[in-house]
Amino acid sequence: MGETRSMITFFLLVTFLQIIFLAHRAAGETTTEFIFQGFKVNQSKLQLEEDATITPNGLLRLTNRNSDRAGTAFYNKPVRLLDNNSTVRSFSTSFIFVIIPSSSNNGGFGFTFTLSPTPNRPDAETAQYLGLLNEDDDGDPDNHVFAVEFDTVQGYKDSTDRIGNHIGLNFNSLSSLVQEPVAYYDKEGHKEDFQLTSGEPIQVFMDYHGPTRTLTITVYPTRLGSKPTTPLISQKVPKLLEIVQEEMFVGFTAATGDKSSAHYVMGWSFSTGPVPAATLNLTDLPPPPPNTAKKRGLNKEIISLVVSLTTVITIMLVLLFILMMYKRRLQEEVLEDWELDHPHRFRYKDLHTATDGFKDNRIIGTGGFGTVYKGIITTTSSSSPSSDEIAVKKITPNSIQGVREFVAEIESLGRLRHKNLVNLQGWCKHGNDLLLIYDYIPNGSLDSLLYSKPRLCGAVLTWDARFQIAKGIASGLLYLHEEWEKIVIHRDVKPSNVLIDDQMNPRLGDFGLARLYERGSLSHTTVVVGTIGYMAPELTRNGNSSSASDVFAFGVLLLEIVSGRKPTDSGSFFLADWVMEMHASGQVLRAVDSRLGSGYDEEEARLALVVGLLCCHPKRGSRPAMRMVLRYLNGDEGVPEVEVYSHSSSRYSLPSDSKE
């Protein structure tokens, strides 16, 4: 009997202990679940502080749009968030909020969803502290505060939370350890930004998974209709264990500062444990507040911006006026006294008009010393106005000091008149530029007829035309050297400086390098100028140009006209040496342009080649004068025997001022 009683007593004791264990375990696993579909009915379950209030239609308004205000709203019962094994339990929450800014571009500061050890936040400050902390306790580990901030202003201390319109994770501080600009992922996985202060309802899903310590946050405008599958934030937060106490209060804080917004919560659900928070149905919630911004006058920033822009525009208009007056003065051209003595001077304004402002589509040629433009200038006479075509060459001299002397020589060259010279009508000085005005020659240069035109259309310059052009050039040089009042040394005889008129007559032009000398005087130039391949050997030694150096250039040009070959190439080829080799072997006609076929006069071709070799003699004293050259070409004088020579011992080194 005694044994039976002992066994019954033991059984009852075990049962009692099991009941106590299960009761304690059940107490440890107490869950919290609630849902507010609007806040009009269950106001008593919220603890509201400062500016937080329930509107007549059931919205929770944390702050209005007054400056420097704060408001808090917490669920009035604590929530158990620690398990017996001291791990943070899973929890989830969902809420729909609306932020109405003071104006369309001026809202702030923001609000938070918060885990707090107390159902209010005493001593919390406004503005950047969001009604959660203050300057003294910010960052204090004894706060035991975790907050998800929805910040609408470039944030706290302007060092960590630099981006406005963002979501941040805060642990005991307003400095966010994790931060993301507000956005959602669409069905294609593209990230779409949107504004917290848009005035439209925005839904938040927040889930903390205790076993993995992972917090996910999804935020999106409710107009999308469904929750995006990809969260904006998915972050392990082991630091949460340092924050959470056994019991915590859950709720919202919000604040305004010098910038302000009204912060509303339309609905809220919360749950601890594995079961997610209840779904909020937008149709069951009170209607969102109207999205109307207060009408406000212009703030100081806008006024300052308007004043600054007005000042800048005024300064720009004044500078534009000064620039226009300067350009007008340049075009009116204040002349120096010495310039008035030269009647062949053109007005820059007229040349500017004639060439359409020196536009690129008016360019008809370029060279080492300038660009040539085609122009149409209007002249008036006693009968009626007429328009003449002109060629305007713009030259920038190397030295301003030489402008006066240059103009004096150009003025003299303007008096040259010969059928085989381009007529230099006049000149113009504008700033640092000198402009030379010539007759316009329609057929272009000899260079283009020898090379460019055959390549483009297959038209080869005939032998008769070539021979007449050669004699015309010789006639023009004879006039310059011997028949005018002064000696004129051209110094740049080459195909591109020979223009062909509509009667196929050559016109030697481009007197930009020409020099004049009184008869009986000697040249004293020392600067080497000209074009490689056409420069006499003595020029590379002393730079002393003469009529003999022009004869050398003509000889090269004559050989080029007959052979259709450039005087030099990138290697060691020199045209005169090549023709001399043909001549020495008794096969000089092999140098004739092969494109002519048999369509040329052999006697004239042989004559031209031999005369060209005479003119290219390396010794200046052995070259004929231009008068004798023309007599040779006209058949008025027999051509002497040409001694064999070579330029290999007197070839060119490239001078610094020469052209290629």
UniProtKB/TrEMBL annotation:
Which Pfam family, any one, appears in the UniProt record?
Lectin_legB
Q: Which GO terms describe its biological process?
A: abscisic acid-activated signaling pathway; seed germination
- Binding-site residues, ATP: K394
Query: Main localization of the protein?
Result: membrane
Q: Which chemical reaction does it catalyze?
A: L-seryl-[protein] + ATP = O-phospho-L-seryl-[protein] + ADP + H(+); L-threonyl-[protein] + ATP = O-phospho-L-threonyl-[protein] + ADP + H(+)
Q: Where are the transmembrane segments?
A: 302-326
One cellular component term (GO) for this entry is:
plasma membrane
Q: Which residues form the signal peptide?
A: 1-28
Question: What membrane topology is annotated for this entry?
Answer: Single-pass type I membrane protein
**CDD domains, alphabetized:** lectin_legume_LecRK_Arcelin_ConA, STKc_IRAK
Could you say which EC number(s) this protein's record lists?
A: 2.7.11.1
* Subcellular localization, as worded in the UniProt entry: Cell membrane
Q: Which InterPro entries does UniProt cross-reference here? A: ConA-like_dom_sf, Kinase-like_dom_sf, L-type_Lectin-RKs, Legume_lectin_dom, Prot_kinase_dom, Protein_kinase_ATP_BS, Ser/Thr_kinase_AS
Please name the SMART domains in this protein's record: S_TKc
Q: Which UniProt keywords apply?
A: ATP-binding, Cell membrane, Kinase, Lectin, Membrane, Nucleotide-binding, Receptor, Serine/threonine-protein kinase, Signal, Transferase, Transmembrane, Transmembrane helix
MF term (GO), any: protein serine/threonine kinase activity
- Domain Protein kinase residues, every copy: 358-660
Q: Which PANTHER family match?
A: PTHR27007
Q: Which family does it belong to?
A: In the C-terminal section; belongs to the protein kinase superfamily. Ser/Thr protein kinase family.
Q: What's the protein name? A: non-specific serine/threonine protein kinase
The source organism is: Brassica oleracea var. oleracea
